[in-house]
Amino acid sequence: MADKRQTKARLVKGFRDILPQPACQREKAMRTLQDVFQLFGYQSIDTPTLEYTDVLLSKSAGETEKQIFRFEDAGGRDVAMRFDLTVPFARFLAMHRHEVGLPFRRYHIGKAWRGENPQKGRYREFYQCDFDIVGSHNIQADLDVLLVAQAALRSLGVQKFKIHINHRRLLKDLLSHWNLEAQYLPVLGILDKIHKVGKEKTQSELATILPNHADLLWRFVQPQGNSEQALQHLQTLFEEQRVDTPALGDLKQIFEQLNALGLGGFYLLDPCITRGLDYYTGIVFETFLEDMSEIGSVCSGGRYDNLVGLYSNEEISGIGGSVGLDRLLAALEEIQGALPQISAADVVLIYAQDMQSQRRLQLALQARGIKVACFPDDKKLDQQFRYAQSLGARVGVFYKEKEGFILRDLASRENIPAADVGAAILHIRKMIHG
Prior knowledge:
Blueprint: H1 20-39, E1 43-44, E2 50-52, H2 53-56, H3 63-67, E3 70-72, E4 78-81, H4 86-100, E5 104-113, E6 125-134, H5 139-155, E7 161-167, H6 168-177, H7 184-192, H8 194-197, H9 199-209, H10 214-221, H11 227-241, H12 246-260, E8 267-269, E9 283-289, E10 299-303, E11 318-324, H13 325-336, E12 347-349, H14 356-366, E13 372-374, H15 381-390, E14 395-400, E15 404-409, E16 415-418, H16 421-433
Parallel strand pairs: 1-5, 7-8, 12-13, 12-14
Antiparallel strand pairs: 2-4, 3-4, 5-6, 6-11, 7-9, 9-10, 10-11, 14-15, 15-16
Helix pairs in contact: 1-5, 5-12, 7-9, 9-10, 11-12
């Protein structure tokens, strides 16, 4: 007798299924981002899901090591699933640098995995949409990435956002002046969580590890009005401390050029932005939605001058960014109430005993970019029309040998006769596009 026991259908914590409508919305957003990246001259690449663990963790220990999905494969190899797309890109570049040439602009849209606590808009499996320039130390590369970030968000219909910019050298040079270089990474870790834990706890933690300099450091990270005011504030502070740093000059150039392009309002100098990953060395940025800042950054990145050097004797400078697509779409749905519905088909062919004429029309419509689905079973017309409406179709088509095509406007329920394929195409295009 057959064993009728069934395994309970369930999902692993932090993972999710994607239904057709949100899947279509995500795919549309990805295509939009691809178009933006290509407009700026970026080229697509891909890398494997699995990497050797020592490759992934070469520059990302600490919290990252706790979050990766790591296991021993069937061959006894210590492997892990990529937690972002930047570290695999560094490995890719070390292996293929002479095939792609420098400077190299790349984009990569793919999944990454982190075993962190799931929360609203954040899952353990998620898509990242990365864009990078490697092979240039020039500030124009930093500016290029910042412009792509702004263009990407606007192309997705995001209206109110701010790209918060900082430079890691500011903090590093300040701590070095105080002979506190050993506290650099701990301080970065504390500041990186300020938007999650709040100012009071952040200030308390800074006072614990830097009791003699906490007040000065707090002055450093406090935002001071707009970007010009913040730059002046930092300039004054560093002059008081007699600290000379090229980072201030870099930031000044960035904001001068952004303002000259009429885009300065999308950006804000924010010394609290540090980025949690260890490999960033220069400009860093995070993007917050003004209507839903609590969801966290939806587009982040920075400069990582020494990352590729971990896998190669040749050190290659780079800067890049990443759009957190899942988090961004979740935020937009929360803000807008619901994302626009995307139809699975424009036209549905109603079942007929002889489908040859229907299929000829289908191919002709599809050649013109019109989405057509065919109902595969002999069911009642009402049932087939309901199915068509469930796909978001505008037109239902059935064929009668003596009458030709009959086109049903699924909104008005009006029937329009069409004697042949050509007439049907003309009517359908008008019904769909107006």
